[in-house]
Queue: 2 jobs
Job 1
Amino acid sequence: MHNLDAAGHVRGESQYLDDIPVQRGTLHAAVYGSPLAHGKLLSLNLEAARRAPGVVRILTAQDIPGENQIGGIVPDEELLAGSHVHFQGMPVALVLAETEPQARAAVKLITADIEPLPIITDPREAQAKGELIVPPRTFRLGDPAAAWAECAHIIEGTAENGGQEHLYIETQGAYAYPTDGGGVRVHSSTQGPTAVQRHTARVLGTGMHKVEIDVTRLGGGFGGKEDQATTWGALAALGAFVTKKPVKLVLGRHDDLRMTGKRHPYTSDFKLGLSADLKLLAYEVTFYQNAGAAADLSPAVLERTLFHACNTYFIPNVRATAYSCRTHLPPNTAFRGFGGPQGMFVIESAIAKAADELGVLAWEIQRRNLLQDGQVFPYGQRVEDCNAELSWQAADQKFELKKWQAEVDAFNQQSPVRKRGLAVMPICFGISFTKTAMNQARALVHIYTDGSVGVSTGAVEMGQGVNTKMIQVAARTLGISPKRVRLETTNTTRVANTSPSAASATADLNGKAVEMACRELRTRLLRHAAEDLKMNYEGLEIQDEQVLAAGKPAETNWEKLVSTAYWKRVNLSENAHYATPDLWFDQTQEKGHPFAYHVYGTALVQATVDAMRGTYDVDAVRLVHDFGQSFTPGIDRGQIEGGLVQGLGWMTMEELIYNQDGRLLSNALSTYKVPDLYSVPKVLDVEFLETPGHPNAILRAKAVGEPPLMYGLGAYFAIRNAVRAFRPDVRPEFSAPFTPEKVLLNLYAARESAAAPAASQAS
Ligand code: LUZ
Ligand code: MOS
């Protein structure tokens, strides 16, 4: 089944926040953000802005009726700056005006007296100064200190990755209305309606029951609206609450880029020990996460980095330590993969460095160390239903790794200026929120008397096709056509206490709840049918297929079944609750069973580098992915393609640059390059691995949102291999993204400095 939103999107009919008809009397808001990254806020000069045309009101921290606090995991983030500013663009004042241009013009008239304080942008500096968001965490397996003695080879190094802008097509925004009885209703472009509700209530000093959040769909989220939609939702709500008028706040692209957090940059130190036959024996790694100025989701992201520190390899002795470092950048946040990609980049870098030094191909090391059933992850979970070997073998068989490598080598032999590189990128990604309690969801299903069905869940549609999946689940479980089912908006009044749509788990969690609710309704209807048809109650489970089958093909019997059930006063609504079974994690031991299951896959990536220009193409990505039993293969394939290209962009061209003052220099699409159509590999093969799926996955279709992003890491190592084909004496340092600029710097690195690593290897 195709994505049900597709036609509406193509015709421009799909409703986004900005398409909601604007009510008369609506005020338009714009935000004044701090011009400095750190300082004491001495005074705000609002007079000129107050007198500007159309300005109705300017709100500051003093106007907040409740608590000026939107921190989730750690209460360390003010909605509007109080006494201090902590990053450039931190919201300080909210201008409400009759039109949006008036509000934006008035913002430009605001000035602030700020006493500058020292600015930290480097996570290692923050760590050295004790500026940590939370205490460090360490995951341990075996005894690495003792294992070094056993290692034939020990490789040490550093790896760095940059951040990543989410660049959802729809910027952050919200539209709030005052409601009867002193509440607010907020249309929010958020992945986490409950988070917006909770923090809005806190800021307004009211109960969550007076705050209703409603979401139709997002024009992209990618993690950027998991936590950080809250600011804009709460600000719009504050405006509506104070003025008793509707308030609409939509960030312009420039403000969105400047004011919101991104994927976390990391800098990490690694030490990897191997046996003579290339078995990984020991791994020590220290991650320094650049959290930015407030905790946001950083501690959770940090944790997922630790969970994925070994990617899809078994290493018997591991010590992984992670620091969440407070700097004066906008608070960094969730981004597809949620720290996993950062952890995986480091182990892949360590393996690449080992391959350089040992004179072997990285995939020879990768191949020998894939996870297998019965082994254990460093966090204590047993490896079960592992498809690491299976996906590698399938990829090898379909794409002929050795032959492909030989072709690349042959090409490089005869091509002096263009060189190719091949890399293999196997992945393993854990599915579940790492915070066990978040793995729950609810669904509310109504069957109307005409046989049509309305389904409400906590799932937010953001282009990933979750609504289509929910409709499929409902239709299949009830045994009716998907045409009879509508997915309602995501609304906190209909479905409460929701987890954000995140962690690749949205379809699993909400889908299971839909399935449970529909099963219950179906049983109820069958019982009614059995009564009407004088069927035997005991035989119900056996006969229910017959009963439903009798309703086909015209489904007129469905309508009859439903309407007669109504007249017999059968309850046609159901609310179900699902909690993923068997999850636990003990943070004191850093051991447990945090994931419902894991998703595996293997990608082969080829890049061609132009050694004159430093430019490159990622020519081909051919991969085998573990979808389980996909019931929406078109949507799932789309997730793989999109995730891959997003990962490829992060690893190759998307370069976020902040200066020493904490100012974003890559603050527009002229300076921040994202993949376009030409960046998509010309060959993009997505093959479905034949596996039974997992019982914790909805209809045994495994989660598909985040895992494919990590195939993009292969592009980094393919480019690196191509550079080394041109300059075997150069060992490019591990610094993502591998921009054409860095390619050139490596290609034209001085011969002398290039000789140094070779000498140290000999010593
Ligand atoms: N969000 C979250 C996530 O709160 N916890 C997670 O484990 C997670 N994982 C991936 C993406 N978002
Ligand atoms: Mo996400 S990074 O699953 O919001």
Job 2
Amino acid sequence: LMQLFRPLDALGWVYRSIKQGLVDMEEMFRLIDTRAEIADPPGAAPLSVNGGAVAFEDVHFRYEADRAILRGISFSVPAGATVAVVGQSGAGKSTLSRILYRFYDIESGRVTIDGQDIGAVTQGSLRAAIGIVPQDTVLFNDTVGYNIGYGREGASAAEIEAAARAAQIHDFITSLPKGYDTIVGERGLKLSGGEKQRVAIARTILKDPPILILDEATSALDSHTEGAIQDSLRAAQQGRTTLTIAHRLSTITDADEILVMADGEIVERGTHAALLAQAGIYADMWARQQTEGDIVDDSGAKV
Ligand code: ATP
């Protein structure tokens, strides 16, 4: 099914399927927000990935003419490193991931992967290089095995199981009466938010992309689920360049760099420790989340 996403035209087909209630992809489309006018330039070459270093260089972007959303964003994620983005709702965090996946073209500036402008390479090759674990995962009304296997066409049952193990969802799946053959999705077994997210992580581990975008769920998960997801995310991040859109600061204290966004600009940046020492917006957010008491896990409390 991944093939469907290569030619954007095919998205229309998927959209009609959703309308018919075949699959619940509303959240995916909130992220995708299909834009038919994004086209490959004539003679576009495939992206050649060598490590998967990502760079945004003075990126300006607006969805609508009258409102700038990104106003001069520059940052880089070295190959294999993790950069986290935080900031108030509407600051433009998820927009960064949509731009990296090239759902939208930018107004000015440059976005590169291993030095190649993402606007100059084929979209198929770009999207093959990026795995997204979205806030809310889309499950097809099919077996859980299919839902994971969809990460890579032709994956064997053993590969699907290995990905599920890495994502810490294998034991849960085997506890179901029909195991990997259990039908999930709107018309099948309803999985919890945390279980769905681990299926998405397994799918992404199977896809094995050099670049990962993690869009953390806004809704708070219980601490047991949160811990399982963090472990599974860590497995997915191994050796991959990662951009994390975070709401709970406790999950990103290890990031190589944290970007604090406000109103389309990066207003603070640095490691967790450096940002705390700076006693600015990030330090305030951290203090606030700690007093709210719903985000501090063991690693967070030690910092
Ligand atoms: P949150 O933490 O709530 O997810 P965010 O920082 O990720 O927020 P974005 O989703 O990047 O924010 O949105 C940035 C701004 O762009 C918001 O003000 C939003 O209303 C606007 N926006 C997002 N998508 C569109 C769109 N398709 N058309 C027009 N405006 C949009």
